[in-house]
Amino acid sequence: MEVKEIFEGVYRINGRLATENLVKGLKVYDEELIKHDGKEYRTWNPYRSKLAAAVLKGLRNMQIKRGSNVLYLGAATGTTSSHVSDIIGMDGTLYCVEFSERNMRQLIDVCNTRVNMLPIFEDARNIEKYAEDVGTVDILYQDLSARDQPELLLLNGGLLKRGGYAYVCIKSQSISIAKPPKQVYREFFNKVSKNFQLVESFDIAPFDRMHMFAVFRKK
Ligand SMILES: C[S@@+](CC[C@H](N)C(=O)[O-])C[C@H]1O[C@@H](n2cnc3c(N)ncnc32)[C@H](O)[C@@H]1O
What we know:
The protein is α/β, with parallel strands linked by helices and 219 residues long. The protein has one domain (45-218): Vaccinia Virus protein VP39 (Rossmann fold, 3-Layer(aba) Sandwich), CATH 3.40.50.
């Protein structure tokens, strides 16, 4: 079996993407567990996780590392966030904001087994409700499918350290169905440019045809 670490905590195992399981023996969704050399890895499905898709599509700036403190907006049931939890390990902290009660119930189950993941049952518009608990983070991850996504990036960017990285999944149809996607993305980048420098952006087809994946650095 060939195991190659392509970014800190991110592996290719016989061509498949994986992270090292923080909680041995436990799955979060329908991923596979692979044991090798005393370690256990979880396969990371690019059709279920836009971050995995971005890695496979050639993401160049992967700043989510061991020990990172991450604010994750739109954690849903914990699919991608559980892999982020694997990557940052026990020295990192992952704050998971989610406002759907149904998703939050499942997310809490995941957080209960992973001590570096903290659930925050809140709307990402109400930053004042969690700002004090979160403090300043190294990384902001946003996957919200909301009309006011750029505004939410600017608002929550207040908790990101200067020079910190923001990973944003932008769904043009959630922002406007009337405008062509290219225009929506351009307007998004312009709107946040006072606080964020665009580092790279690309589509994540064929894994997901609806999103642009963008990486920003806080000015
Ligand atoms: C596309 S799903 C996220 C999938 C997840 N990032 C993953 O890869 O596992 C978007 C999630 O964002 C949540 N959401 C949307 N707007 C939100 C807001 N304003 N505040 C908090 N959560 C929000 C939705 O409830 C939904 O669970």
